[in-house]
Amino acid sequence: MVTRRRVLGATLATTGASLFTAAALTPLFQARSAQAGTRPASAPLFTTALPVPPVLTPLSTAGGKDTYALTLRRARTEILPGISTEVLTYNGHFPGPTIKARSGRPVVVHHRNALEDHASVHLHGASVAPTDDGAPMDTFAPGTSRTYTYPNRQPHAPLWYHDHAHHHESEHVYRGLSGSYLLTDDTEQALPLPAGSYDIPIALRDARLDERGRLVYEMDDALGRTTLLANGKPYPYLQVAARKYRFRLLNSSNLRFFHLRLADGGPITQIGSDGGLLPAPATLDSLWLSPAERADIVIDFSRYPVGTRLVLENTLGPGSPEQVGQVLRFDIVRTAPDPSSVPAVLRTLPPLPTATVERSFELRMTDESGAPGAQGLVNGRVFDHDRIDTRIRHGASEIWTVTNPNTLVPHNFHLHLVQFRVLARNGQAPDPSESGLKDTVRLLPGETVRLQATFDTYRGTYVYHCHLLDHSAMGMMAQMRIS
């Protein structure tokens, strides 16, 4: 019998605190492919075009702000070709529509809850007042509405919005309640990066679909969710021109980590992460995305002849290569002029202030076997809305050391309100992909990350948690109060 322990152990194995390599995973995939099952016959590879979520149109632009309306409601969509699947949506879209915003210009979003559950909408990565943060217990009931105001006083960043109602968040997001919120500013706009139709958001995730095409949700179901989706479609293709494209990658899955590469081993240029552009572009042969992380990348298709078909691969399980080894395919179908370029310097980040406080945090599952009743803990405690776990002086800059002591189960760490800088991973300097601003950072089994955050914006109570949402729903979340 293939257990959760055996598969996660094989897939996310580490030697001490060192990272495993993509090459080392390939034989592990092949060894268990016969046991892992096959992709549903109704989810063939590369037969569906990659959709691009629509950009939401504001109801009003008066008064120096953009006002939008979204309805949380059930809808039906074709995930598998020819099969109608019920999903949870914002305005009927799976995933939700994209909101485009600009630094210094506020956005107001009116949400109406047409679901049967309470909901809370969190703008992930945003610096907002506590009343607009979409806190896990700050929900609005079925049949009611809630208005959130986003001042957008922060620099450009590829933010995203999703449900955060505690004990519902994992299922709500799994069933579709998420969408992109792309915040730009003059710094970003001044650069000659690919733009317009050559700038495409792609939300990656996984799903478990039964024989009738229905989404199946079970808590902590890492092994069952083995159909990969890009913008809500399984294994799509995208027709591209032989020129540079910018892709805003978002891992919107609950549990799945992605390790992505081009099938030919070609270079991927990462230009940004959670908190916007990196200081300088990083040329990579592969990249990591844990749940909620974003990677802003440029791929130059001009090095390929027209007619080339290039697959974006994933080298991580759970699942067999047939199920999870291919994400989407780029089909180079034409030539096109390309005035874009990627400058050697993208932005300048201010120097880090002197930290005055250091803290340590441990994220741990009580049972790594997948047995019912397992709890997620932060520093040995399950989330309690009535408890303040960390008290922070407003204006302080702090260094937090975050550790995953589990031997099989990965985690990651997300801070509400602030972007932070990664100082070290397992005692070593972070690689260039983590050189920018972050709000979520991966923690493979046995890993430790040091980060620095400055709490100089809003006062109030906010949460920090593992963004493997099944884990946070199981209690791996805590509260900080800034005063």
TrEMBL record:
<keyword id="KW-0479">Metal-binding</keyword>
<dbReference type="InterPro" id="IPR008972">
    <property type="entry name" value="Cupredoxin"/>
</dbReference>
<dbReference type="InterPro" id="IPR002355">
    <property type="entry name" value="Cu_oxidase_Cu_BS"/>
</dbReference>
<protein>
    <recommendedName>
        <fullName>Multicopper oxidase CueO</fullName>
        <ecNumber>1.16.3.4</ecNumber>
    </recommendedName>
</protein>
<feature type="domain" description="Plastocyanin-like">
    <location>
        <begin position="77"/>
        <end position="186"/>
    </location>
</feature>
<dbReference type="InterPro" id="IPR011706">
    <property type="entry name" value="Cu-oxidase_C"/>
</dbReference>
<keyword id="KW-0732">Signal</keyword>
<dbReference type="GO" id="GO:0005507">
    <property type="term" value="F:copper ion binding"/>
</dbReference>
<comment type="subunit">
    <text>Monomer.</text>
</comment>
<dbReference type="Pfam" id="PF07732">
    <property type="entry name" value="Cu-oxidase_3"/>
</dbReference>
<dbReference type="InterPro" id="IPR006311">
    <property type="entry name" value="TAT_signal"/>
</dbReference>
<feature type="domain" description="Plastocyanin-like">
    <location>
        <begin position="373"/>
        <end position="482"/>
    </location>
</feature>
<dbReference type="InterPro" id="IPR011707">
    <property type="entry name" value="Cu-oxidase-like_N"/>
</dbReference>
<dbReference type="Pfam" id="PF07731">
    <property type="entry name" value="Cu-oxidase_2"/>
</dbReference>
<dbReference type="GO" id="GO:0016491">
    <property type="term" value="F:oxidoreductase activity"/>
</dbReference>
<comment type="similarity">
    <text>Belongs to the multicopper oxidase family.</text>
</comment>
<dbReference type="InterPro" id="IPR045087">
    <property type="entry name" value="Cu-oxidase_fam"/>
</dbReference>
<feature type="signal peptide">
    <location>
        <begin position="1"/>
        <end position="36"/>
    </location>
</feature>
<keyword id="KW-0560">Oxidoreductase</keyword>
